[in-house]
Every structure is written in C-alpha cells, then in structure tokens.
Amino acid sequence: SHLLFQKYSVSLPARKRQKNESLTKLADDIRHMSDIVYYDLRQNQRERLAIMHFINALQSPAIQYDLTEKSPKTLDEASHFASVREMFSVLKVSGA
Fold first, then answer.
1. Which of 14, 70, 85, 94 has the greatest CB tally within 10 Å of its CB?
2. Which of these, 61, 55, 95, lies nearest to 75 by C-alpha position?
3. What string of DSSP letters covers 1-24?
4. What is the number of alpha carbons within 13 Å of residue 7 lying toward its C-beta?
C-alpha cells in the first residue's frame, strides 16, 4: 500500500540493527522493506540497494568495512559474511 511505501521510504535508510537482533532477522526486515520501496526496480538493482542498507544498518564499522571489501552479490551472501565475521570476532575476543 501507499502508506507502507511512505513509512518504509523513511525507515529503511535509517534502519539500524537492534541490540540482540540476529543478522538473519535484520536481513529479512531489510529485504521486506526493500521489496516495497524499490518495487519498480529490477531485481539486481533491488538486491544492490538492500545490501547497501544492510551494511549501513550494522553497528560495527569493522564488519561494515569487511563486507564492503567482499562485495557480496546477494543480501543472503552479505548476511552470511557478516555472521562469519561476527563469529570470528567473538572467538577472537574470548581468546578461543
């Protein structure tokens, strides 16, 4: 609907990952909003914008940088890379 379009047009660029929010949930939410906001774009364009919003929503500059360097082709790939990177940083911090 037009109201959802308006709401998501504002909230999508401002979207940030919440404390204890899974990367999968974040990616799913961004996918949902992107599909509505960018409904008139081709799939590959929507995907690129969704990846950009996903990276921007992350709270870790290090993971944002690493993801940008990896240039994921899909939102699922971006979410996977971020999960692996996050798991690695947790293991490093815990001394494992």
1. 85
2. 55
3. -HHHHHHHHHHHHH--PPTT--HH
4. 7
Structure token pair of residue 44:
């590959």
- Is 46 within 8 Å of 21 (Cβ atoms)? no
DSSP symbol at 29: H
Express each pLDDT in 37-56 by its tens digit.
Answer: 999 999 999 999 999 999 99
In this structure, the chain runs to a length of 96
pTM: 0.91
SS3 content of the chain, % helix, strand, coil (to 5): 75, 0, 25
Rounded to the nearest angstrom, the gap between the alpha carbon of residue 45 and the centroid of all alpha carbons in its chain is: 15
